[in-house]
Amino acid sequence: MTENTQPDSATSEAPKSTEPPHTIRRFLKRDKLPLSVLLLSVLTGLLVGLVGTFFQIAVHWVSKQRTEWLLHSITNTVPLWLSAFLISGILALIGYYLVFRFAPEAGGSGIPEIEGAMEELRPVRWWRVIPVKFIGGVGTLGSGMVLGREGPTVQMGGNIGRMLCDIFRLKDKDGRHALLAAGSAAGLAAAFNAPLASIMFVVEEMRPQFRYNLISIKSVIIAAVTSDIVYRFIKDPHAIISMPQYDGPGINSLWLFLVLGMLFGVFGVAFNRMITWTQDMIIRFHRNELKRYLFMACIIGGCFGLLLLYVPNLTGGGEELIPHAISGTFGLHVLMGLFIARVVTTLLCFCSGAPGGIFAPMLALGTLFGMFYGTCAQHFFPHLAIEPGVFAIAGMGALFAATVRAPITGVLLVIEMTNNYHMILPLLITTLGATLLAQMLGGQPIYSQLLHRTIKKEKLGQDTHSEMANS
After folding, report:
1. In sequence order, what are the beta bridge partners of 148?
2. Which of 265-282 are b and which e, b meaning 16 or more Cβ less than 10 Å from the residue's Cβ?
3. 10 Å Cβ neighbour count for 234?
4. I want to staple 91 with a disulfide (CB 3.0 to 4.6 A). Which of 28, 139, 397, 430 is the partner?
5. Residue (of 196, 224, 191, 421) closest to 319 by Cα position
């Protein structure tokens, strides 16, 4: 009897493997770090978008409440001018005191501190910087000082990125670096509703510090996009600055934009030098003494309270001034007068160590001089049929490029903030002229310049302390 060689159907089936398919196994074996960094980038963008948006809302609320107090509450017993001086002085005092007492690195823009942290030259004390920058920035910006909100949001954004690294115990240096950069980009996106410009700012302006790779650039893009979505959901999906939409100027007038850029190249170098000179003068005055420092804070804040009453165009970051300047309501002498006066107020506020940025004030300065230049060009070259407003828009990007030395970022920032996409070519020409001439004149980018000064002063202070200890 032959043995049945056919296997039984029950036993012929091979046992089913409990291992996952090959593609899933390969995915599970991959390094989890890139995925974790990208997920943390989403969380970074979400938190920075919330903080940056509510920071803007808080500044507007304080400004509105200050006006309400002046109009309805305090002036019944105290003269209007004295009320304005006291309210703005107290608001500024809050910001200056918090910086001096708890987080000196939160003074000024904060962007040089982020760049220093990306190079591992500066510490990131997020538990101090975030509350000090938020509350102090609300105080100084709410007092009417000529400061921008982009500096605080960029610094808070970078600190939030580092905070998440510490909370989730991310040890990888590249991952921590990527989240620091991602938070910075998210902060700028939340400040100006300009996600593309915020991405380019990290890649272009922070190029000496930014470690460009696939994970870092993805993190920056994800955080900036997420932050901007949060801003648009809570605040407003429209451009920050409302102004007319201009058509691109004719080719025969493009040379005028190159000349404008060269003028801004010269001014940008001079402006950066005026910043460092003014900082030195202010430090000589208060000598890092608390009483002198707070006295200066009260005087500066109070004076801007008075300016809010009598010359409001000399106060604030400039987002509200820009549409008025472009509307053509100011004559040539008023445009030049405002430009010169705001140069002084911008230097005074930014160089005093108040927590606030300089982006928005620079955009306002570029608008004023650009409008002045455009009005003159319209008068001397009427056959070109160009609107002065196109030069105002070009001037916004030119001064930014000349001082920060980031021309592409300047172009994208202006386009996203004004929604004037037809101005790409004249903006490129103007920012290129400004950047090239500024470089030829030996000017340094403002944030790198400020970072080097901070490190130098800190090292000098450590050397002095060591000498005193040894003696």
Report:
1. 357
2. bebbbbbbebbeebbeeb
3. 15
4. 139
5. 191
Q: Contact, 107 vs 326, CB < 8 A?
A: no
Q: How far apart are CA 183 and CA 202, in angstroms?
A: 10
Task: Please measure the distance between the N-terminal and C-terminal CA atoms of the chain and give it in whole angstroms.
Answer: 111
Could you tell me the CA-to-CA distances from 46 to 38, 223, 279, 333 in Å, in that order? 13, 7, 35, 46
Sequence-distant (6+) residues with CB within 8 A of 407 are 397, 401, 428, 431, 432, 434, 435
pLDDT in tens, 10-68: 444 545 555 556 655 554 445 456 889 999 999 999 999 999 999 999 999 999 888 88
Tokens of 254: 């493009």
Report whether pLDDT(7) > 50: no
d(CA 40, CA 38) in angstroms, rounded, equals 5
d(CA 189, CA 229): 9
Locate 256 and state its tokens.
């005028």
Q: Which two tokens stand for residue 173?
A: 């240096």
Q: Which amino acid is at 167?
A: I
CB count within 10 Å of CB 122 equals 18
pLDDT at 119 over 50: yes
Does position 347 have pLDDT exceeding 90, yes or no?
A: yes
- Which among 257, 247, 196, 195 is positioned nearest to 397, based on CA atoms? 257
Tokens, residue 86: 């006291």
Distance between CA atoms of 410 and 150, rounded to whole angstroms? 14
Sign of CA dihedral 320, 322, 328, 333: positive
Would you say 225 and 195 are in contact if contact means Cβ atoms under 8 Å apart?
yes
Residues 438 and 267: their CA atoms lie apart, in Å, by 8
DSSP characters over 398-426: HHHHHHH--HHHHHHHHHHHH--GGGHHH
| 199-228 pLDDT tens trace | 999 999 998 889 888 889 999 999 999 999
**Distance, CA of 210 to CA of 272 (rounded, Å):** 23
Higher pLDDT among residues 8 and 416, named by residue:
416
Query: Which amino acid, residue 12?
Result: S
Phi, psi at 237, each rounded to 5°: -80, -5
